[in-house]
């Protein structure tokens, strides 16, 4: 047996039996792969165009971004990276009816998807905490500076890089999805050893459960605060009341973005856990395929939400919808302040 054969055996030994014969061959029909490829082209185009525009706005504006705008741009960078770093590989493989980039390409595809996806989730978590502090602790908005946000976003990138890279460093691995034309974390390691179980459980806790818990905590506290302070706000002067209403509108936007991300990724997480701790081949190929395609579209949701907000803002222009809490922005300058979180 050649060294290449040995490498292939070692790489596939932890995978379920259905993937042992040809791990990179598509388990779907040609028609399903073609439809998936077309779907991914559409979602990829919307993701790249929409998030690219959000990233381009501050370059065109040539002004320092406010803290909340920095978070918006960082989220767009994560979504843009997810689309550029993963979509071309997946689209090409769908039309080829198999994964065509080998194990190195598989690991890159898995790493980039996990890195930018985790970065997006941590950014959304930071946004949720920002909304929580701004609504529940009014003084927070006064002392928050740009450098505080840079530290938080730097942490988000380091956090994502750490968890995405440890599978390449020997703890865990990346492997093909059950349908064969995409790659992800090797969830089946949980069935191979205690070490594999520790890896999967760590990923689930630190990259899904903990951020999601923080997001839910933030918005539950916000809702409770709004209900308890409704009468109190009514006695504020008009300027403070207007600012409070603005912060509430922006909080609703942030909640939409959080909900969109979680709705896109939770079904995929459920199927992945099922694969990790169920019996081998417990997840049918079609069942694993649909949540994956749904999750791959997550990067396009935020630009659509921003555009819907912008349209609503245009309709409500006379009422001063989404005025900046710092100054009255000019529409000719940029619309980024309308989208800021």
Automatic annotation (TrEMBL):
Please report the stretch or stretches of sequence annotated as the G-protein coupled receptors family 1 profile domain: 50-306
- Report any one BP term from Gene Ontology: visual perception
Q: Which UniProt keywords are present, listed alphabetically?
A: Cell membrane, Chromophore, Disulfide bond, G-protein coupled receptor, Glycoprotein, Lipoprotein, Membrane, Palmitate, Photoreceptor protein, Receptor, Retinal protein, Sensory transduction, Transducer, Transmembrane, Transmembrane helix, Vision
Under CDD domains, the record lists: 7tmA_Opsin5_neuropsin
- Quick check: keyword ATP-binding in the entry? no
Q: What kind of membrane protein is this, topologically? A: Multi-pass membrane protein
Return the InterPro entries for the record.
GPCR_opsins, GPCR_Rhodpsn, GPCR_Rhodpsn_7TM, Retinal_BS
* Subcellular compartments: Cell membrane
Q: Organism's domain of life? A: Eukaryota
Question: Single GO cellular component annotation?
Answer: plasma membrane
Matching SUPFAM superfamilies: Family A G protein-coupled receptor-like (SSF81321)
One GO MF annotation is: 11-cis retinal binding
Q: Could you list the residue ranges that cross the membrane?
A: 34-59, 71-91, 111-129, 149-171, 198-220, 253-277
Write down a Pfam family by its short name: 7tm_1
Q: Which family does it belong to?
A: Belongs to the G-protein coupled receptor 1 family.
What is the designated name of this protein?
Opsin-5
């Amino acid at each position: 047996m050649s060294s290449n054969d040995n490498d292939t055996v070692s790489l596939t030994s932890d995978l379920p039996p259905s993937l042992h014969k040809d791990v990179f061959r598509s388990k779907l029909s040609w028609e399903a792969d073609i439809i998936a490829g077309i779907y991914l082209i559409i979602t990829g185009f919307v993701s790249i165009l929409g998030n690219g525009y959000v990233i381009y706005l501050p370059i065109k504006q040539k002004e320092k971004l406010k803290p909340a705008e920095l978070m918006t741009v960082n989220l767009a960078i994560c979504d843009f990276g997810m689309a550029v770093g993963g979509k071309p590989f997946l689209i090409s493989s769908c039309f080829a009816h198999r994964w065509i980039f080998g194990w190195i390409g598989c690991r890159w595809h898995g790493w980039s998807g996990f890195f930018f996806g985790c970065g997006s989730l941590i950014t959304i978590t930071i946004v949720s905490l920002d909304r929580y502090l701004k609504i529940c602790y009014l003084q927070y908005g006064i002392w928050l500076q740009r450098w505080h946000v840079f530290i938080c976003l730097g942490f988000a990138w380091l956090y994502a890089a750490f968890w995405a890279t440890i599978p390449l460093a020997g703890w865990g691995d990346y492997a093909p999805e059950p349908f064969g034309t995409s790659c992800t974390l090797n969830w089946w390691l949980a069935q191979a050893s205690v070490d594999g179980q520790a890896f999967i459980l760590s990923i689930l806790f630190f990259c899904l459960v903990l951020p999601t818990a923080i997001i839910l905590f933030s918005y539950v506290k916000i809702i409770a605060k709004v209900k308890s302070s409704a009468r109190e706000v009514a006695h504020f002067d008009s300027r403070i009341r207007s600012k409070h209403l603005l912060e509430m509108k922006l909080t609703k936007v942030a909640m939409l973005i959080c909900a969109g991300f979680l709705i896109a990724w939770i079904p995929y997480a459920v199927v992945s856990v099922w694969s990790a701790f169920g019996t081998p081949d417990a997840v049918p190929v079609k069942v694993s395929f649909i949540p994956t395609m749904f999750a791959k579209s997550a990067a396009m949701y935020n630009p659509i939400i921003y555009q819907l907000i912008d349209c609503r803002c245009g309709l409500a222009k006379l009422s001063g919808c989404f005025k900046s809490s710092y100054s009255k922005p000019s529409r000719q300058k940029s619309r980024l302040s309308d989208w800021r979180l």
